[in-house]
Design goal:
Low-confidence stretches: none
Order of helices and strands: HHEEHEEEHEHEHEEHEHEEHEHHHHHH
Largest sheet: 6 strands, mixed, barrel
Strand content: 15-25%
Strand order of the largest sheet: 4-5-10-7-9-8
Distance between the termini: 25 Å
Number of strands: 13
Mean pLDDT: 82
């Protein structure tokens, strides 16, 4: 018997149609198992997408470091010494750090989360004002909707230019008013608006970002009497370097530069998007594996059901199988027939469950896209490798499920079959 011939498939259809309700119930478990694998893994992907979106759109290989107060005396310096970063520390890191792609110093008027009154004509608004360098846009990307971003020439010439967020534009300018080339005043200092940006983040983070004003770092320090002080350092880590490795190197260099005890845990503060991204990726990777395992157990239970049904089917077909053996059917013919029936039932049931799973995820994704607020769950989806692995697992389990019924069929003797 060859699987590509017509007769085996006709016989297969007759076997299934002889007891359609039983065939449906036995295949339901396999379809449900594959459906659950796709749904749980797809939901895990949707949760991961939502968490990452909620974390904002800072690039995954970024980190931020600022000075604090020491907790240990070192090299004649007392404990509780305040550590302040300067422009020379930036140059030191650029020259000595091997794990960094870029270092961006940043200052904020009024300190962390500080806001200042910014005026234009008779309008005023409380905005965050920052001193930045052009490379900061690679660390915390924004979308420039009008004009341009800060460039190196602005830094070198200490130009009094500003890039404002869309909320600042709405607060200080009328709808039809020309923004580019206009002037705003920050603490009595005039700046020319050269660009408008909107945030790539979501929710409150986006509102806060779009209520900000970016000025050249050198201009900021001179205009607001900051000298060479740096509020904090924004770091862009090389793609092939782990976040914790890069942060550890930077802290080691800065502690040596600022005479802070190597074991002092409080000399510097640090926050790493790279480390958080790595931790989140590990958690969700484990969650996907757990989802796959539990879905696989449901699939395994369904395959066991098919194996039991095939054992019953073999028992009911004792006469048929015995007659085949008496007419010259080889053991291989019998094994192929039973295995083909088991695999066909398993694969058909699994494919139907898989189709329903993909359709359910796509429907849910369309609903979330149309909703105004996706919350922390967005874009549930299944990747091709997971789908192929699920189908391969299903096929292997189906093949194993056919072994016992096939062996049972081989033990049927023609004489015993004829007695029935």
């Amino acid at each position: 018997m060859r699987w590509w011939e017509r007769d085996p498939w006709l016989e297969l259809a007759q076997v299934f149609l002889r007891n359609p309700f039983r065939t449906f119930l036995s295949s339901l478990g396999v379809g449900w198992g594959l459906f659950m694998i796709l749904i749980t893994v797809g939901a895990s992907n949707g949760l991961e997408e939502g968490v990452k979106a909620d974390m904002g759109n800072r690039v995954k290989n970024s980190a931020f470091i600022w000075g604090k107060s020491t907790s240990m005396a070192y090299k004649g310096y007392p404990r509780k010494r305040k550590i302040e970063l300067t422009s020379s520390d930036v140059e030191y890191l650029v020259e000595n750090a091997t794990t960094l792609q870029a270092v961006a110093p940043r200052n904020q008027l009024g300190g962390w989360r500080g806001e200042n009154n910014v005026t234009h004509d008779l309008k005023s608004a409380a905005c965050g004002v920052f001193g930045d360098v052009p490379v900061y846009k690679d660390i915390d990307p924004v979308i420039v909707t009008e004009g341009r971003y800060i460039n190196q020439r602005d830094l070198d010439d200490r130009r009094k230019v500003a890039v404002i967020g869309t909320r600042v534009r709405q607060s200080l300018f009328s709808r039809d008013e020309e923004v580019l080339g206009s002037h705003i005043q920050i603490q009595g200092v005039n700046f020319t608006v050269v660009g408008v940006f909107k945030s790539q983040q979501t929710g409150e983070d986006a509102e806060e970002s779009e209520n900000s004003i970016f000025t050249p770092y050198t201009t900021f320090n001179r205009a607001f009497h900051m000298g060479d002080k740096v509020g904090w350092l924004s770091l862009l880590i090389k793609e092939d370097v782990r976040g914790d490795t890069a942060v550890a190197e930077v802290l080691r260099l800065l502690k040596a530069q600022k005479s802070v005890h190597p074991e002092d845990p409080r000399g510097f503060g640090e926050w790493s998007m790279a480390e958080i991204h790595e931790e989140m990726s590990t958690v969700f990777r484990a969650f996907r594996w757990v989802s796959f395992v539990f879905g696989g157990l449901a699939l395994f239970a369904g395959v066991i059901g098919i194996m039991n049904i095939m054992l019953i089917t073999v028992k009911e077909r004792t006469r048929e199988l015995g007659v085949r053996r008496a007419l010259g059917a080889t053991p291989a013919n019998i094994v192929v027939q039973i295995m083909m029936e088991t695999l066909t039932l398993t694969i058909l049931a699994g494919l139907i469950g898989g189709i329903f799973g993909v359709f359910a995820l796509d429907t849910l994704d369309s609903f979330l896209v149309s909703a105004e607020d996706n919350g922390i769950f967005r874009h549930p989806h299944i990747t091709l490798d997971v789908l192929l692995n699920a189908l391969m697992t299903m096929t292997i389990l189906g093949a194993l499920a056919g072994v016992l019924p096939a062996l049972r069929a081989l033990r049927i003797q023609p004489v015993d079959a004829l007695r029935t």
